[in-house]
Design brief:
CATH class of the largest domain: Alpha Beta
Number of domains: 2
Shape: elongated
Strand content: 5-15%
CATH architecture of the largest domain: 3-Layer(aba) Sandwich
Mean pLDDT: 96
Distance between the termini: 53 Å
Largest sheet: 8 strands, mixed
Bound molecules: uridine-5'-diphosphate-glucuronic acid
CATH superfamily of the largest domain: NAD(P)-binding Rossmann-like Domain
Number of strands: 14
């Protein structure tokens, strides 16, 4: 099929490259010339495992990029909206980019004779496709949704770092369509994908809610584990021992029960806030989801408090911070738990030596007054204490480097420090164990 994809960020470029890999003719639409040039020259505009290879394979063949909505819509049957949905100043969803993309698509559809389907893949709060995208498309095209063009909502469940794999091997595909015809169109795109479960067909607001519920539930699991972990810590219980057994209950499952510094990234914090915002807007106070955010925001401060309990005043103390990315395998620092931890340490007068295998460069844009190191051992050298904020595999191998921290404090926020031979040498503190 012929597909155009609006937005060449993380979701857009993965969607475009994977649809090309499935044999479709794909055109990316973006306003950023640099991204367009990158895709057309066979390079990925973002760092994501396996994406460069796919774009290199298909660019110039069945994958191209342009800034011209009109030609892309005329030359395709389906357009995906994959643009950002950032938070506004109050944490609610900001739909301005989705609205602008809908308007541009509508104009182009207005100039097209044949049937066209618009698919929202951006994460948007329930009712957005019905109340904003569809009316904007109708107004700017002068056509009628359901009769002249189709509309559908098709959420993504892509983990950063594993997005290509997740797209090609989905556990479910959800299509929330305005009418059967639009849904059938979208469904055909996935004909060659082996989905673990049947393709779920529903309406757009349900599809939107499925996406938010999914992320909110995973975030709730993490905050729940962190709360249990905080209680365990006070009782001298290892929460990992507890959760290992609790996760054996098939109704709970062993995943996303790892307590620690909390969840970050571009999705969980933003999506839980957007859902609480929507909920309040329609007159329901989301007690549990508010608490999920509160627990999460507290975890980095608990680490700094544990540090103070051990070494007292932090003024002029040198603290090594290992891990800046929001999780391993990425240079993404959005909502990383290391950001509030570092801000807290700076506020308390500490000197910081930070190290991350990928994310030093990105963190420099937020904190330019701390020292960045090229190796973990450089950060640990002469430090008074260390906070471990990200679960990088290489931190699990740092036996001798942590040996340099003899008699010093290591606060582990991710359960990665290899304590086996080190417990005698370092003063090891787990955030929740
Ligand atoms: C998340 C979801 O997992 C995807 O299904 C979803 O499609 C995506 O958001 C999205 O909405 O686009 P991602 O943000 O890449 O994917 O990150 P995850 O791997 O889910 O991890 C999120 C955060 O939770 C990380 O900071 C991680 O360290 C933390 N986490 C995860 C824990 O603290 N404990 C756990 O047990 C698991």
């Amino acid at each position: 099929m012929k597909v155009s994809v609006v937005g060449s960020g993380y979701v857009g470029s993965v969607t475009a490259a994977c649809l090309a890999e499935l044999g479709h003719q794909v055109i990316c639409i973006d306003i950023d010339e640099e991204r367009i040039n990158k895709i057309n020259s066979g390079k990925s505009p973002i760092w994501e495992k396996g994406l460069d290879e796919l774009i290199q394979k298909h660019a110039g063949n069945n994958l191209k990029a342009t800034s011209d909505y009109e030609s892309a819509v005329l030359d395709s049957d389906i357009s995906f909206i994959c643009v950002g949905t950032p938070s506004d100043d109050y944490g609610n969803i900001n739909l301005s980019i989705v609205k602008a993309a809908s308007k541009s698509l509508g104009h182009a559809i207005g100039n097209k004779d044949g049937y066209h389907v618009v698919v929202v893949k951006s994460t948007v709060v329930p009712e957005t496709t019905e109340n904003f995208v569809t009316p904007i498309l109708e107004e700017s095209s002068g056509k009628q949704a359901g009769r002249d063009f189709g509309v559908s909502m098709n959420p993504e469940f892509l983990r950063e770092g594993k997005a290509v794999y997740d797209f090609m091997n989905p556990d479910r595909i959800v299509i929330g369509a305005l009418d059967k015809h639009s849904g059938d169109f979208v469904s055909q795109l996935y004909d060659k994908v082996e989905c673990q479960n049947e393709i779920v067909r529903t309406n757009s607001r349900t599809a939107e809610m499925i996406k938010y519920t999914n992320n909110s539930f995973l975030a709730t699991k993490i905050s729940f584990s962190n709360e249990i972990g905080n209680i365990c810590k006070k009782l001298g219980i290892d929460t990992y021992e507890v959760m290992k057994v609790v996760g054996m209950d098939f109704r709970i499952s062993p995943y996303f029960l790892n307590s620690g510094a909390g969840f970050g990234g571009s999705c969980f914090p933003k999506d839980v806030r957007a859902l609480t915002g929507k909920s309040k807007q329609i007159g329901y106070e989301p007690i549990l989801l508010d608490a999920v955010i509160r627990v999460n925001e507290n975890q980095p401060h608990i680490m700094v408090n544990l540090l103070e309990e051990k070494i007292g005043n932090l003024e002029n103390k040198t603290i090594a911070v290992l891990g800046l990315a929001f999780k391993n395998g990425t240079d993404d620092i959005r909502e990383s738990r290391s950001i509030p931890a570092i801000a807290d340490l700076i506020y308390k007068g500490a000197e910081i030596k930070a190290y991350d295998p990928q994310a030093n460069g990105n963190m420099k844009k937020i904190f330019n007054n701390i020292t960045y190191c090229d190796r973990a051992e450089d950060a640990l050298h002469n430090a008074d204490a260390c906070l471990v904020m990200t679960d990088w595999d290489e931190f699990k191998e740092l036996d001798s480097e942590f040996g340099m921290m003899r008699n010093k404090i290591v606060i582990d926020g991710r359960r990665v420090v290899p304590v086996r031979n080190l417990e005698q040498e370092i003063d090891y503190v787990g955030i929740c164990w």
